[in-house]
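Milestone 3.1: sequence recovery, worked example.
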């Protein structure tokens, strides 16, 4: 087993995606504690620019993998490319962001390599020199601590928006290596026909420092304006519970929770949201949670740092006015 922590970078339009940058940041943290080397691995052509840039900014080695066949993403091509590469590298650990792509190919790759895969982790712990991982189960009702038996390499995927991105404060000569792999000529089961752009512009709430979120307690689309007003004056992102997006008061991209976005802003203001487990999964890692609800027994108060028991129709205009005054 080598001393490498390999970070698999996911990219689009020649840029690493955010969760890959967060994986690098976690890799950096672990490399210091465990005395390992971080290596970023990306697959595809025309990645030299991003590889050079990341390497000089982080000081990490970057390996660009290409194959004689096209490297467009399909689970089969990525598994084929990474199987032989990872087998020869035999790293200590492979870190990857938890994304749709990851879910699509990493379980298959882990199966091919007979390596374990601990998915969607939100923290790590080192106890008696042993690295362990924390992940949620049962829709976030429980946190599980998982350790790998033995010392074989394994995969870990990390939840988006948890680890943040590092300041590296380095500017070194880039170390970029290109590996062209010769792969066995297996028949490909899928081929990429077309990339269809999402019709909605993606609203990324994972980067918002403040989120004002509204729930069914708002009562109607018109009343939701109260949330938009407060968000505007605070310069905040707008979040919603599922009934809000199901009723088309707001588009699906704003939904927070197990079937929406997972966020961890500095401040999360939950208004008229009861705090169902599927919502809490998406926001309970926020640094400070303020809940406004007329029901003093609403479960949201169990995760809230500050709770206001009362009628949001009275409270929200007051908060918006105060925030507006403070801005002046
Ligand atoms: C598979 C699955 C996935 C799901 N995924 C998600 C998800 O990703 N995100 C999500 O949010 N939900 C999700 N849900 C739905 C979830 O179970 C809850 O139904 C939902 O979160 C409830 O939304 P809510 O809190 O806005 O509404 P409610 O539970 O109806 O709560 C409304 C709250 O508003 C308060 N209220 C009413 N009027 C006022 C007032 N005037 N002033 C102050 N407070 C007031 C009430 O006291 C109440 O607590 C999912 C469910 C399933 C089964």
């Amino acid at each position: 087993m080598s001393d490498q922590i390999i970070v698999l970078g996911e990219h689009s339009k020649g840029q690493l995606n955010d969760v890959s940058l967060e994986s690098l940041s976690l890799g950096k943290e672990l490399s210091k504690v465990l005395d390992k080397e971080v290596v970023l691995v990306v697959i595809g052509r025309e990645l030299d620019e991003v590889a050079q840039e990341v390497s000089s900014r982080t000081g990490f080695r970057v390996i660009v993998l290409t194959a004689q066949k096209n490297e467009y993403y399909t689970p089969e091509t990525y598994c084929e490319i990474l199987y032989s590469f990872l087998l020869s590298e035999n790293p200590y650990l492979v870190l990857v962001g938890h994304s749709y792509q990851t879910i699509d190919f990493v379980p298959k790759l882990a199966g091919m390599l007979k390596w374990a895969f601990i998915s969607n982790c939100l923290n790590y712990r080192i106890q008696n020199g042993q690295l362990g991982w924390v992940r949620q189960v049962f829709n976030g009702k429980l946190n599980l601590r998982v350790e790998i038996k033995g010392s074989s390499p394994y995969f870990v995927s990390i939840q988006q928006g948890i680890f943040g991105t590092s300041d590296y404060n380095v500017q070194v000569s880039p170390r970029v290596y290109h590996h062209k792999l010769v792969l066995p000529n297996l028949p490909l089961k899928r081929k990429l026909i077309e990339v269809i752009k999402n019709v909605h512009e993606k609203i990324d709430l994972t980067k918002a420092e403040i989120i004002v979120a509204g729930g069914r307690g708002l009562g109607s689309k018109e009343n939701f304006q109260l949330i938009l007003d407060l968000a505007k004056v605070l310069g905040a992102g707008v979040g919603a519970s599922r009934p809000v997006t199901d009723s088309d008061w707001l588009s699906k991209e704003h939904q927070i929770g197990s079937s929406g976005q997972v966020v961890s802003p500095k401040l999360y203001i939950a208004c008229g949201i009861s705090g169902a487990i599927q919502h809490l999964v998406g926001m309970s890692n926020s640094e400070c949670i303020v809940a406004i609800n007329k029901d003093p027994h609403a479960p949201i108060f169990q995760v809230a740092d500050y709770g206001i028991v009362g009628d949001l129709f009275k409270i929200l205009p007051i908060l918006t006015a105060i925030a507006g005054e403070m801005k002046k």
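The first strand starts at residue 4 and ends at 8. The CA atoms of residues 226 and 316 lie 7 Å apart.
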